Predict the structure.
Amino acid sequence: MSKGLSTRRLPKSGIYRLALYSRYLSGISKNDDDYISSQELADATGHTAAQVRKDLTWHGGLGEAGKGYEIRKLKTMLTAAFGKERVRNVILVGVGNLGRALISYSGFQLQKFNIIAAFDRDIGKIGTYVEDILVSDIRELDSKIADMEVEIAIVAVPKLSLQQVVNRLVASGIRAILNFAPTLATVPEGIEMQNVDLSIELDRFCYLLEGNS
Amino acid sequence: MSKGLSTRRLPKSGIYRLALYSRYLSGISKNDDDYISSQELADATGHTAAQVRKDLTWHGGLGEAGKGYEIRKLKTMLTAAFGKERVRNVILVGVGNLGRALISYSGFQLQKFNIIAAFDRDIGKIGTYVEDILVSDIRELDSKIADMEVEIAIVAVPKLSLQQVVNRLVASGIRAILNFAPTLATVPEGIEMQNVDLSIELDRFCYLLEGNS
């Protein structure tokens, strides 16, 4: 297999770094036609300048000798990489405590995720509303997904149900899944699945608790 | 201010990288008396070898020329850095949907966080149990914290209550706070507060959705 840049995939931690660069750029007081050095981005985000330069080449970002990166170009590049200009309709499967918390979570809206429907298998929940979202029977998933032309699902179901729910979503035309269940599932090639890993936050917290400061 | 290593603090993203190295080491089939190169750790986690070497020096990890790092030493170093050998008692404040989800979240136990008490201000919740955790009146926070000799709190309260709850926790002797509220609060110097940032997971997901693979 070729190891050329074009056929390799940016690892998860690289995406994380790009997101950090993007946040830093949104927060600084410099003008868009100013330049920024890889060293400044490195210092601000806790990486090396070499790492920053390597990461930015993934999206074609090339600094100019002695000047660095034009901020406008970097911002445009990162906005495109994260698709920040568009609203995305998503469905939620699993309306337990976590699912309810996610419906209320303001971050989804900030990031332009728009939850348009929710599904559960619990007869006690079907037909009720959580905020203004109607909870539908999970057995209607196929027909509703077809009607709504939605391709993204957020999943907050119990561990044991995850693979079954994922299979059903994929069969119904869902192309990307954000998984909050504390376990993993397999998806066919071409389907994106991202697992939210709270344990890395707990790791960080443990590290602070050890007095590593 | 000195910029020497000993007085600087490892940035959040550095802690994240150390956690990734630690996970990779727990998963590989090599023996503890084998050696591993910074390049292997870099390739496995999506960083540069220079970044890996720099990160490991924070805890005194020094490779041997031509051999790399002894796996046993690295593991011992990282286990100590994250305090992974000890169980930590914690309290939870806020027993809404997210708080309930956190009580059920298996990851806390895996990471040896033991939720020993929960608090809320809602009279309808006080005196009830979530799993086997009794929900107490938040007005009893002071006396209960003193009785339990607990120093760590997990906070899952509404945005608007966060600063008030944090002030109360600090006044009651809590030294470290893991904040799940989607906003920030200030704490006095010497108190650790970590904010769980779900938006970075959403950023990653957006990135995948843009077909950056």
